[in-house]
Write a structure and sequence with these properties.
The chain is of the alpha+beta class. It has 5 helices and 8 strands. The chain starts with a strand and ends with a helix. About 15% of the residues are buried.
Length: about 160
């Protein structure tokens, strides 16, 4: 058994670090090594920023995600282990972005959409879209109130509904 103990990264009130848990590295599955990218001067890991070593992603035998960043050979730094949530592991795979990461993402998170990001072409989302049909005379009154207030129809409808509820 190769037991890895994971501690918090923030000191507790006594100045020590809380033990968060442990896992058996020999029983864990190595999922992925982070990809590297050119930063203009060096090749660096996209997750850790390290030049020499790469961060590793594991899945324990009980299904927990664990990240290892061993900076000892790099900066004479720490060998850090931390538990990740499912969302953090998914983001880890997305950020790493190489072919191996895409395969792992498909295996472990098949529901991940093909793309994500801000809609740069439209207005910001206020809330979920709601469609309603109004009689032409009611719509004309809404448009008149919107013109008086100097706002768009949608904003006036939001104000009227908000005031009513």
């Amino acid at each position: 058994m190769n037991r890895i103990t994971i501690y918090s990264t923030q000191p507790n009130d006594q100045g020590g670090y809380d033990r968060l848990g442990w896992f058996d590295l020999d029983a864990a599955e190595h999922i992925l090594e982070e990809d590297s990218r050119w930063d203009g001067q060096n090749m660096r890991g996209v997750i850790s920023g390290m030049q020499i070593n790469r961060a590793q992603l594991y899945r324990t035998s009980s299904g927990r995600w664990v990240e290892n960043q061993d900076a000892r050979p790099e900066f004479n730094g720490p060998d850090q282990w931390r538990f990740l949530t499912d969302d953090e592991a998914r983001e880890w795979m997305i950020k790493s972005g190489d072919r191996e990461a895409e395969e792992a993402l498909e295996k472990w998170f098949p529901d991940t959409p093909d793309e994500s990001g801000p809609n740069l072409g439209g207005r910001p989302t206020v809330g979920p879209k709601v469609e309603v049909r109004l009689a032409p005379e009611v719509l004309a009154k809404v448009d008149a109130r919107a013109a008086e207030a100097g706002v768009k129809r949608a904003e006036m409808l939001r104000r009227i509904i908000t005031d009513a509820v």
